[in-house]
């Protein structure tokens, strides 16, 4: 990868990338809060729905850990709330009736949420299509590694 010969240019570029990452994180958080409000749920509930959408059913305690709630009653309250709103349901394990999984309910509220998300998905697709395959590979690599950094730092702070 070419490196600028201008003194201090690389440091400025690295700082600019870091600044843009912080701005993206802040705007993403605000976007998710707005999206959740539009869907009639709070941001934590939205994160729960998004995680189940991406990774599928999981036990409540695993779900709690993955969204940073830890163990205890908070996940029960969240699942109750999402169940009443029609986003999730509890399902007993087929072989071990004592084990419970939380799964996404596709339809109704979930479909309305997907319609709200469709515009941003289209905008990101259009943005991505403006880059070459080589540029997309670099962007994907950076985004993946940045996500790993964020997860690592979140775990260091005691979350997720």
From TrEMBL:
GO terms for molecular function: DNA-binding transcription factor activity. Signal peptide: none annotated. InterPro entries: HTH_MarR-typ, MarR/SlyA-like, WH-like_DNA-bd_sf, WH_DNA-bd_sf. One of its GO terms (biological process) is response to stress. SMART domains: HTH_MARR (SM00347). Residues 34-136 form the HTH marR-type domain. It comes from the Bacteria. PANTHER family: TRANSCRIPTIONAL REGULATOR, MARR FAMILY, TRANSCRIPTIONAL REGULATORY PROTEIN. This is HTH marR-type domain-containing protein. It comes from Sinosporangium siamense.
């Amino acid at each position: 990868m070419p490196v600028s010969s201008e003194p201090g240019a690389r440091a400025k570029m690295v700082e600019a990338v870091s600044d843009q990452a912080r701005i993206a994180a802040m705007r993403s958080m605000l976007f998710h809060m707005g999206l959740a409000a539009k869907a009639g749920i709070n941001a934590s509930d939205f994160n729960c729905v998004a995680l189940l959408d991406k990774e599928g059913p999981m036990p409540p305690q695993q779900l709690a850990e993955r969204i940073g709630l830890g163990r205890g009653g908070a996940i029960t309250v969240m699942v109750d709330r999402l169940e009443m709103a029609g986003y999730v349901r509890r399902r007993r394990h087929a072989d071990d009736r004592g084990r419970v999984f939380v799964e996404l309910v596709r339809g109704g509220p979930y479909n309305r949420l997907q319609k709200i998300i469709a515009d941003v998905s289209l905008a990101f697709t259009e943005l991505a299509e403006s880059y070459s395959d080589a540029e997309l590979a670099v962007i994907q690599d950076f985004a993946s590694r940045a996500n790993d950094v964020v997860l690592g730092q979140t775990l260091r702070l005691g979350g997720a």
